[in-house]
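[agent] plan:
  1. take the single chain provided in the ticket
  2. run structure prediction with default settings
  3. attach structure tokens to the ticket
  4. add a short note for the reviewer (M.T.)
[agent] executing step 1
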Amino acid sequence: MGELYATAAQRLAIDSRDARRYRTEVTELAYLGERVRRRSNSLFSEDGNRGDGSLARREPSVFLKETLGDEFNQSTIREIVVPGGVAFGETASLAFTAAELQFDRGELILIDEDGDAHELPEIDLADVKALFDFVNRSRAIGSDAIVDIDAQGRVRISSALRDTEAGYKIMHADTQPFEFVPNLPVTKSVIIDTGVKWQRGEIGKTLQFEVDYEVRFLSADNMRIAQTRAALVYVYDSDSKTAEYSDSWGRYVARLNDNLDYSGLAESMREVATYAGWAALFRRLQEDEVRFLRGRYDFMKIDKLGEKTPIRY
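[agent] step 2 finished; step 3 output follows
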């Protein structure tokens, strides 16, 4: 075994009963026997992105939500590659400077720069682990896309959320916009986050968050570029666990049904908005390189598997 570990360079092996039971992949072993690149001592290209292309091919269409534009800026993405579905790409604003994230006794705790501990809102651990993995995958492949359901009902979902309860709930929410907003001459709906704020709670030290999100309805212009024809704007509050309709924009706003059930659509998106808040927080902590050492091993072992993602919906 000594020779094996020596061959898999720069691998720290911890040998214990728990470690032997823990199923993990020794990534370096996958590269044993491969030739190094020409004029190099490395297997990898200089940009360090080996494997990202194959990762992206197994995901929904690579998509950053900013390319859809907004009320004032035109879209720059062709209709055929608009992933539809749901895309989380916001980085949360945080009311204080975070110094450390901890996982202790089944709870995530955020430590600020003054050493004060802040409890995070209650959420199913399998869901929060799936969202943590999604943010890692999103940053690795440069895509905000979570799920896409095409015209034939075929489902493509981020592998970080495949076969998870969170992924299934997001996928189901992706089917809801046209249930509440019928008869628009559009071909796609897209649910995206547009702003996330985390702050101290009024009672105790449990943090709260607010998510701005939009449910957009799109079709292509004569250049086959996706255009938002109508967008419904909502604000979700984690304390009350409710979302309120706040605005709408787009050329087809006047075509919206006068009896549109704005609150019903908000309720169908409630869990999606919650997940958007958590994903944005993890993106903030990762971008700020906040330490996550205490309890990380136990957190990474959380079994996130749940409802199986169907091939078609």
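[agent] step 4 note for reviewer: Residues 1-9, 47-51 have pLDDT under 50 and may be disordered.
[agent] ticket updated
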